[in-house]
Write a structure and sequence with these properties.
Elements: H1 12-51, H2 54-63, H3 69-78, H4 80-90, H5 94-117, H6 136-174
């Protein structure tokens, strides 16, 4: 005698929750793309402003008084926001670029908070030779950009995790020799 599989009964609220969750997923990818591209363009805008005046960028790094001259020179030479911005806009190594963007913005936000808390009267150095001084408005702006980076990263990871099992099963069907 063969037993039949157990029957799972879903009530109306479970079905409604599943339908609402599926409906929200259709916004995840467009929102991730918008956040990623916006973040990429902000980083590129900042990078190109610094490329036009590299000594100002180096001076800005030194004004924060957080790194040695050698580390400041390395940061100014590498200009990491250029590479990260290109990766985000071109959709190359997006996961790593979003992690780096979040880390860069977290460090920059922390440096600004430290400078503001210690009363350093200095330019934020955000977009080239800006005369805007470090203050509450620059902290809010960097925190907002950091928030966009975190949202893009979380959405990117969630979308990858949602699509990964489907990708694996499709690959397994094409190549049945893969051990499960």
């Amino acid at each position: 005698m063969q037993s039949s599989p157990p029957v799972v009964q879903l009530d109306a609220s479970t079905t409604a929750d599943a339908t609402a969750s599926a409906g929200l997923w259709r916004f995840a990818e467009p929102l991730e793309i918008a956040a990623r591209v916006l973040l990429g363009f902000v980083l590129l805008l900042s990078a190109f402003a610094h490329l036009g005046n590299p000594y100002f960028f180096l001076t800005s790094v030194y004004q924060y008084q957080l790194v040695s001259p050698r580390v400041g020179q390395l940061a100014a030479m590498m200009l990491p926001m250029l590479l990260v911005g290109i990766c985000l806009v071109a959709r190359v190594m997006v996961g790593g670029a979003l992690i780096l963007a979040s880390a860069l913005l977290a460090v920059f936000m922390s440096a600004q908070a430290w400078a503001y808390a210690n009363g350093l009267n200095m330019s934020c150095g955000c977009f080239g030779s800006s005369t805007e001084m470090v203050g509450a408005s620059t902290l809010v702006r960097v925190a907002a950009i950091f928030g966009i980076a975190v949202i893009a990263l979380v959405l990117h990871v969630a979308i990858d995790r949602r699509t990964l099992p489907q990708s694996r099963s499709a690959a397994d069907e094409r190549n049945p020799s893969i051990a499960r």
